[in-house]
Design a protein that fits this description.
With 339 residues, this protein is an alpha/beta fold. It has a single domain, classed as Aldolase class I (TIM Barrel, Alpha-Beta Barrel). Helices cover 35% and strands 16% of the residues. The chain contains twelve helices and 13 strands. The chain has helices at 42-53, 67-70, 77-87, 120-140, 154-159, 174-192, 210-222, 243-249, 265-273, 284-288, 292-297, 315-320, and strands at residues 17-19, 22-24, 28-30, 58-65, 91-97, 101-102, 105-108, 116-117, 144-149, 197-202, 227-230, 256-259, 279-281. The strands form three sheets. An eight-stranded parallel beta barrel has the order 3-4-5-9-10-11-12-13, surrounded by seven helices. Strands 6-7-8 form a three-stranded mixed β-sheet. Helix 1 links the parallel strand 3 (28-30) and strand 4. The chain is globular.
Length: 339
């Protein structure tokens, strides 16, 4: 960890934040990161519980495909997972993900050769699927749900003028390209009521201008989104931390999450102090050391197991189809064995 000037006392990073009726004890967020673990099983339960115990204010459970809420496979595991995260002191949300498959077929906004174009009827049914999944999360005791509209995945491709060549109400103009994401957010809000956190993850810079994303952010807030999660939050390597999150925050009054290169508390504190974001997501560093926030708070930074960004057993294991681990911390993925 670089820099030694950060002091936890009176820091913004460890200050609380209230979003609606949900209390976040700190500004640190465990972002949604795929684990290849069974979310209804003991391995994922222990993995998330240990990270919640480490001190983040909000834990967002990894991208979970909509069909998993529909086939009953998560029914028994979700309440236990929500309870474990919350008992450890963190608020809990689940990221909801449309994988670009309908009825076993690959679909996209427009035909790609590898995926057929989703029909207007299929697209119109998607917001209710997000709403149903969010209701399942709410009934399980989670504080919120995040609509995954980022990273060139299915929903993000509807926002993209390159991927979306539709000529119906879901394609063409910015208003039409925003439509599906906004309908999903509105459907979740209607289904879950005012006290449930609705988050939306968006990639602000893509094959579309930043101005499009800023318009979208304002519309998301009006649609009832409580927190906008900008990923990535920096436009390019070496640019100012959280420049894209800052641009978004300038257009909305709801909290904004920034992510990327802010495991160093000095960097995170600077982003918060400059009012570029309200929450800081720390990803791989919390895989490597789930106790990173507490070690920072306790003045034990020399004890932090540092992520070296090798991507060996986090991304590497994902590609191999096995649960994630960490080259720096052999206990990652094995936390359940200590229970």
């Amino acid at each position: 960890m670089s820099g030694k000037t950060f002091t936890p006392a009176n820091s913004l990073l460890f200050s609380p934040l209230h979003v609606g009726k949900v209390h976040l004890r700190s500004r640190i967020v465990l972002p949604p990161m795929k684990t290849n673990m069974d979310l209804a099983g003991p391995q994922a339960l222990a993995y998330y519980r240990v990270r919640a115990e480490g001190g983040p204010g909000l834990v967002i459970v990894e991208a979970t495909p909509l069909h998993q809420f529909e086939d009953g496979g998560l029914a028994s595991g979700l309440p236990v997972l929500a309870e474990a995260i919350q008992e450890a002191g963190a608020a809990a949300a689940v990221q909801l993900f449309h994988p670009g498959r309908i009825g076993g077929q690959r679909v996209a906004p427009s035909d790609t050769g590898n995926a057929r174009a989703a029909t207007a009827e299929e697209v119109a049914a998607i917001p209710q699927r997000f709403a149903n999944a969010a209701v399942a999360c709410q009934q399980a005791g989670f504080d919120g749900a995040e609509v995954h509209g980022a990273h060139d995945f299915f929903l993000n491709r509807f926002f993209s003028p390159t991927h979306n060549q539709r000529t119906d109400e879901y394609g063409g103009s910015l208003e039409n390209r925003m439509r599906l994401g906004l309908e999903c957010a509105k459907a979740v809000r209607r289904a879950c009521g005012a006290d449930f956190l609705v988050l939306y993850r968006h990639t602000a810079a893509g094959d579309y201008p930043l101005d499009d994303s800023l318009v979208f952010a304002g519309q998301l807030e009006r649609a009832g989104v409580d927190i906008i999660d900008i990923s990535p939050s920096t436009s390019q390597e070496g640019s100012e931390h959280a420049d894209l999150a800052a641009a978004t925050k300038s257009r909305v009054s709801c909290p904004v999450i920034a992510v990327g290169g802010m495991e160093d508390p000095e960097a995170a504190e600077a982003v918060l102090a400059a009012d570029k974001a309200d929450l800081i997501a720390v990803g791989r560093a919390l895989i490597a050391d789930p106790n990173l926030p507490r070690k920072i708070m306790d003045g034990c930074r020399d004890e932090i197991i540092e992520c070296v960004k090798c991507n060996d057993k986090c991304f590497g294991n994902l590609e191999a189809g096995v649960p994630i681990g960490c080259s720096q911390n052999p206990n990652v993925g094995l936390e359940y064995q200590a229970d």
